[in-house]
Write a structure and sequence with these properties.
The chain has 12 helices and 12 strands. By secondary structure, it is of the alpha/beta class. The protein has 2 domains: about 10-245, Type I PLP-dependent aspartate aminotransferase-like (Major domain) (Aspartate Aminotransferase, domain 2); about 245-370, Alpha-Beta Complex (Aspartate Aminotransferase, domain 1). The strands form 4 sheets. The chain has a 4-stranded mixed beta sheet with strand order 1-7-6-5. A 3-stranded parallel beta sheet has the order 3-2-4, covered by helices on one side. Strands 10-11-12 form a 3-stranded antiparallel beta sheet. Strand 8 and strand 9 (about 220) form a beta hairpin.
Length: about 375
Amino acid sequence: MPVPFMDLSRTPPSTERLVRDAVLRVLDHKQFILGTEVTAFEALASRELEGASALGVSSGTDALLLGLMALRVPAGAEVLTTPFSFFATAGVVRRIGARPVFVDIELDHFGMDLAAVSSLPRSRFAAAIPVHLFGHALDLDPLVRWAEDSVPIMEDAAQAIGARDVHGRLAGLQGRLGTWSFFPTKNLGALGDAGLVATRDEELAARMKQLRAHGQSSQYRHEEIGGNFRIDALQAAALTSTWPLLAEQNRQRRLNAAYYERRLGDLARRDDRFVLPKISAGHTVHQYVVRVGGGRRDQVQAGLREMGIGSMVYYPIPFHLQPCFKDLGYREGDFPRAEQAAAEVLALPIFPGLRPEEQDQVAAGIEKLLA
């Protein structure tokens, strides 16, 4: 029996009806750009994000890009971030002409090693972009203390909608602004590309709203050059219909993660080269990422594939070794933990529609391959 890594066709019929009704509502009133659907979505997002001003945008990538533009990060400036994330995190820095500066990660949750940040001079940086990866919310207190009021923090929470840190705080709300992605495979997925930015700074929120529509203050009056970063009304309507289901979806992911912990825990204790993720109470388990060391990861993935079991590698090449960042001057060995993660990470099926017998197949396959 094949086990898919992700299967969106298993969306419950009740959820399908909610989305279909939302889409048909938009098709009926034909207000496809901004309008009431986007207003309702942003109001819901603001409530879910503890009153922060929320702005729907065209993608998680554009959320990051819009944030940097709104923070007025100039060309040539340096932006502190991680070498291990989805490409957009560093890609948007180069798109505005700035320079990403990397700090190595920690291997428990694959986030920036915030302890290493404290020795860096604040005056170097125009902004910092920490990433809440795979559904884990970082405790950003060390970064906030380091940044003080001189380095604005933009949180990349693309994979951490609803995640809470060890203090119970929502990912995306500790810095100057937060960004999220609603790519269809996210815990809260749209029907295509969509994203969100949120901030408690009303002046910054107003600036992002203006930049979202080509820098317009009124029709055809452009105060500055922005972009076309608007969320589609269809996406906004779909997300408004499914956001109330997010908590239950995240709960199912945590239950699936708990099964893997029970089933594979003994194997991890016997073999210190096989490492299970640390899933806290506030973790939303966007991905269930194990580490397979000893140069065995690719063999294990190939073995799972032969068994018909899906898996994914997030991410096989850290930023400092990407061809497009060659001019930054980094070399292999500069960030050893990021390189180790890239060689060892393997994401197992975790989506809410995963069946118990399929999880059993995954676990049995891992046990067989690592025996």
